Amino acid sequence: MIRTFAALSITALMATSLIAAPCRDAKGKFIKCAAKPAAAAPAASAVNKDAKGRCHVASGPKKGQLTKCP
Asked: 0.85 exceeded by the pTM?
């Protein structure tokens, strides 16, 4: 009895997770999922590029240190 109940509850959880999928329209039909928004880009003044093309932090405690170019 307990095993049957556990199996049924697991099946119900799986079914509800499929029903609640965010990639369905209002009619319940599958649609292409929208892409998640990208992380916000740093402000333009947060990074400075020197004459050699290397990027440096513009302000703050790490001012002047090399960083990835945006």
From this structure: no
